[in-house]
Amino acid sequence: MVPDPRKVVLFLPPYAGKVLGPPLGLLSLAGSLREAGYEPVIIDGALAPKYRQQVAREVQNCRLFGISCLTGPIIRHSIEVARLVRSLRPDLPIVFGGWHPSLMTAQTLREDFVDIVVRHQGEATLVEILRRLDAGRSLDLVAGCWFKRDGRIVGNADRPTIRLADLPRPAYDLIDFDAYERAGGERKLPYATSIGCPYACNYCTDMVFYNRRFNAYGAGDVAEELADLVRRHRLTDVALLDSNFLVDVHRAVAIAQGILESGARFRWTFQASTDLLCRMSDDEVKLMAAAGLHHIGFGTESASPEVLKHMNKAHQSIPDMYEAAAKCARAGIRTTFNLIFGYPGESERERNETLRVMGEIAERNPNVDFSPNVFTPYPGIPIWPQLRELGVPEPATLAEWADVDLGQTKLPWLQGRAFARLERSIRFFLLDNQINRQRRKSGSGIMRALLRLLRKPLHWRLRHAFFEMPLELWIAMANQWLTVRRSLLTGQALSRELAKAR
């Protein structure tokens, strides 16, 4: 088959769990490629069960093959497909991009199935790479890319950030919304009104990736495009992927006002920090709800001032957590509070304090859910040198990073009995919260009284940190009551499987 010099195949490997929606990052790349005269083909491994066959077919006549991947299990599929492509087209340039290759560039390039890595914001970089290859020129001085020459790694300088408004729009027309609706059950679009966050949390890869720069579309452009996309594709839901949507509160309110005035009706969600929501008036929060906002994910992480200080979250305060939950409750907006346990230096007392505060917030506000996670040491985060000193092993190859899995991390300072106690305390806390939610919903006075009695031993356990003989958890397992984790973005249950009680 004769190669098509215009065709570029972009691949997103499959991931565990529910299909989250179209791959916005690849759609953004596709928009820039198409404007430059190329013909992008997107293969979403989460949507296509026979993605290997599709990849094998499409790469037979393409100019370049690109893979986007995150840290974690998704890397296994990235490696598998890259090796497949290499065997089918040994001459075809294989490009890796996305979060993990940007953070671990040299290590990624050491693999024999990787020729080029695009770092950070990749739209302009990928176009320039293709033009250089078309002209038979080297990739020297192509900002934002590293490559191999005669087996040696060549690192170019990073490309300066380009304003989102100056980039071509993502190629939303390439999405088969019917297929995603069949796979995920919703007619939903992941959408970004901005990238980057000005805060400097020590555990956050976003800080490294975007260098604390907030890069946003104008409010009017966002509202107009969303209204158009919703009507054109009959969307019911939009998940805003912004790192911190409320960085510019006035802009956020203007977007909500624009959506409301457009007449487009859809549900939308976003992530933010509680301090920013607390800068908003109740009327502004209710305006967002009137425009269709139904859920906010908050990165609260901990209710211990000492742990928040270690995390470099000076902007996060305990009173703001209470106030943000209350503001959202008054506006009828659901919330999910993300929690990180096992952060370096955190004591059991501080973990218990976090659960106590979150329990109080849930008691006062029926709109609050929680997504508890064990701290995961991702590559490139600011405290990585400290983690090395604490004994966190650093994977030596790309394949070893596939074993880094959120919620499954084994930390040197949190193992054995200490980890088991943490695990059980979280599960007792979640069980209490869910029983309380059932109590509120029940129309039977007898049932409400019974559920209130069921909570008493849970309260005693949490107050005294007694987690032996977890009878309540065994009952919850049998009845599938316990949701272990929730999506920070949508608040939906990610798993109802309860790991074996320890």
How would the blueprint of this fold be written?
Blueprint: E1 7-12, H1 24-35, E2 39-44, H2 51-58, E3 64-68, H3 74-88, E4 94-97, H4 99-103, H5 105-109, E5 116-118, H6 123-134, E6 145-149, E7 152-155, H7 177-184, E8 188-191, E9 194-195, H8 205-210, E10 215-216, H9 219-233, E11 237-240, H10 249-262, E12 267-272, H11 274-277, H12 282-290, E13 293-301, H13 305-310, H14 318-331, E14 334-341, H15 348-364, E15 368-374, H16 384-389, H17 398-401, H18 416-441, H19 445-464, H20 471-479, E16 485-486, E17 493-495
Helix pairs in contact: 1-6, 9-10, 10-12, 12-14, 15-18, 18-19
Q: Care to count the β-strands?
A: 17
Overall mean pLDDT: 89
Poorly predicted regions are 496-502
Structural class: alpha/beta
What is the approximate shape?
A: globular
- Estimated helix fraction: 40-55%
Quote the distance from N terminus to C terminus. 58 Å
> What's the CATH superfamily of the largest domain, by name?
tm_1862 like domain
Indicate the CATH class of the largest domain. Answer: Alpha Beta
Strand content: 15-25%
Q: What's the structural domain tally?
A: 2
Number of helices: 20
Strand arrangement within the widest β-sheet reads 2-1-3-4-5-6-7
- What is the correct CATH architecture of the largest domain? Alpha-Beta Horseshoe
C-alpha-based Rg, rounded: 24 Å
Descriptive account of the structure:
The protein has 502 residues and is α/β, with parallel strands linked by helices. The chain has 20 helices and 17 strands. Helix 15 links the parallel strand 14 (334-341) and strand 15 (368-374). The longest helix is centred in the C-terminal third of the chain and has 26 residues, at 416-441. It starts with 6 loop residues before the first strand and ends in a 7-residue tail after the last strand. Residues 496-502 have low confidence and may be disordered.
